[in-house]
Amino acid sequence: MAQNPKQYYDSSTSWGNYQFTSLQNIIDQFIIAYVGEDKIIPKIKRTDVIFHANRALQELSFDVFKSCKSLEFTVPPTLQMPLPQDYINYTKLSSVDSSGIKHVLYPTSKTSNPTSYFQDADGDFKISAVGTFTNNSKTLVLDGEYKNIIVDMRVDIGNNIVKDTSTVGGVTTITLNSKASFTGDRKVCFYDKNYLLSSKVKDSVVLTGMSWSISSAILTAASASDAAKVKPGMVCSHDDFSYKALVLDVQGTTIYLNSTSAAAGTSENVNFVSYIESETWENYKSQEPSENNTSNYKDYENDVYWPNEGRRYGLDPQHVQVNGSYYIDCKSGVVHFSSNLSGKIVVIDYLSDNIGESDETQVHKLAEEAMYKWILCAIMSTRSNVPEFAIQRYKKEKFAEVRRAKLRLSNIKLEEITQILRGKSKQIKH
Question: Which residues, given as ranges, of the chain have pLDDT below 50?
Answer without folding.
Answer: 289-306
